[in-house]
Automatic annotation (TrEMBL):
<dbReference type="InterPro" id="IPR040415">
    <property type="entry name" value="SETD9"/>
</dbReference>
<protein>
    <submittedName>
        <fullName>SET domain containing 9</fullName>
    </submittedName>
</protein>
Amino acid sequence: MLRGLRRRWAAYRYRFVPWLALNLRRQRRTLRYVPESSQDKIIPDEDVLETLLKVFAALFANDLGRQAPVLAVRPEIRRKYEEPAPAEPRRSEEGARSQRALGPQEVLFQALGFGLARGRSSLPAAGTGVFVSRGGARRGAVVAMYPGTVYRKHEPIFFQSLGNPFIFRCIDGVLIDGNDKGLSKAVYRSCSRRDQLGPFQMSDVSWLTAIPQNSLARGQYINNCSAHMRKQPTCVIRNLMCQDAFQ
């Protein structure tokens, strides 16, 4: 039992903020050395922005029926999405309804050519992971986002970090809490309601559910490598709000 507890602590301590504060300086080997943040980018910012705009535009066009507040304020957006392109024939009303009725996974597949699914990993003791469920993602493509509450260096996160394996620490000290349960979930919902401007939501809260409206918002479940696998290739998700990743 003690051996099992030690293994769990060894995997969790890098997410436990008090332990990080006391031990980070003494264990510099756990940090990757990056002389400048601009040298730590796998994908150029322009490519990331292009991918996100493509996905978000497709999701918006697929759900025009619920975008009445935005379309009322910006009528030019309504014309852009509702009028067909000159080379395309005008869709029938049933065709338009069926186009809007697509699920987020189908929208992601049509926009980027792949779909994502969350499920049990086949690796021993790896827990839940994220898989390409259909299609294929090319090397170097943006495949996921890391959603969550962003904490700056001076903001408290002690209670949220207790037993929380989803604390993502960037090299610049910013922490992202991607936990979709418990206290972390309540904090994110509270911040989302606080920042809402009338009918306009400033953030997506659907990633807290089993079926996120943005299918890319699954990055917190992508597994990083363990200590004994560090020398082997691994897929490490980079937070799109912070260029430098920890571990």
